[in-house]
Design a protein that fits this description.
Elements: E1 8-13, H1 24-33, E2 36-42, H2 45-58, E3 61-64, H3 75-87, E4 95-99, H4 107-124, E5 128-131, H5 136-143, E6 149-151, H6 158-166, E7 170-173, H7 181-188, E8 195-197, H8 217-228, H9 234-249
Parallel strand pairs: 1-2, 2-3, 4-5, 5-6, 6-7, 7-8
The protein binds zinc ion.
Organism: Methanococcus vannielii (strain ATCC 35089 / DSM 1224 / JCM 13029 / OCM 148 / SB)
GO molecular function, one term: metal ion binding
Pfam family, one: TatD_DNase
Amino acid sequence: MNFNKFLYIDSHCHIEDKSFNKNRDEVIKRAFDGKVGIVTSGASLGGCKRALELKNQYSIYATLGYHPGRVNAEEKAINEVYEFIRSNEKEILAVGEIGLDFNSGNIEKQEIIFKKFLELSKELNKPSVIHARGLEEKCFNISKNDSILMYHCYGGSLELAKKLIDNGNYISISTIICFSNYHQKLVKNLNLENIVVETDSPYLSPIKGEKNEPNNVVKVIEKIFELKKDEYSLDEITKIIYDNTKRLYRIQG
Ligand SMILES: [Zn+2]
């Protein structure tokens, strides 16, 4: 994919999600027409396989990982995902999403799985896309020395956000910012250095009752502009975030 034709990149979404089966063509076309590039993230064996197929079919980018919510799967299933990622390393920008989720139970087992996939990012020399819901500090303590981290859908503290960025990692701001004061305040207090944006589609829609889609990543940029307009023009913010994303994922061109 020639990224030069884009102005924006949705740095994390799930376009392989089955809920897009009915209108995936349309959703991807709408993104491309809106100059939005797509990085889709497989998070299960089936999801990883579909993400790679779509990457080739639509010329989008992919990251592959294993969602912490799948903590109770059998060892064999987890290993299959691990081997699938390893054997497709040339096809992917990063390993993830991987991480911990406070709401999925069995944190000890989640931690073992997380470490296994972190080792893989390290071995493959790729960034890690981190899901850290409610356990942002813990994820950082486990992963800080392993690879460049991109905290997807960041909702942790301002202090940790600054620490992550100071250590060369990335914070991804999702469409949640369109309606969450907490996230708006967070961004207001951060420099744009190492901030990227995402929709996490089909989740986290900024519009009540609608399914989220990559094109909505423009709404995240517009909201950031609203918060930062004393310092930057809309074009400057768009360009800084686009360049941050390319640097994070080492996208050439
Ligand atoms: Zn996700």
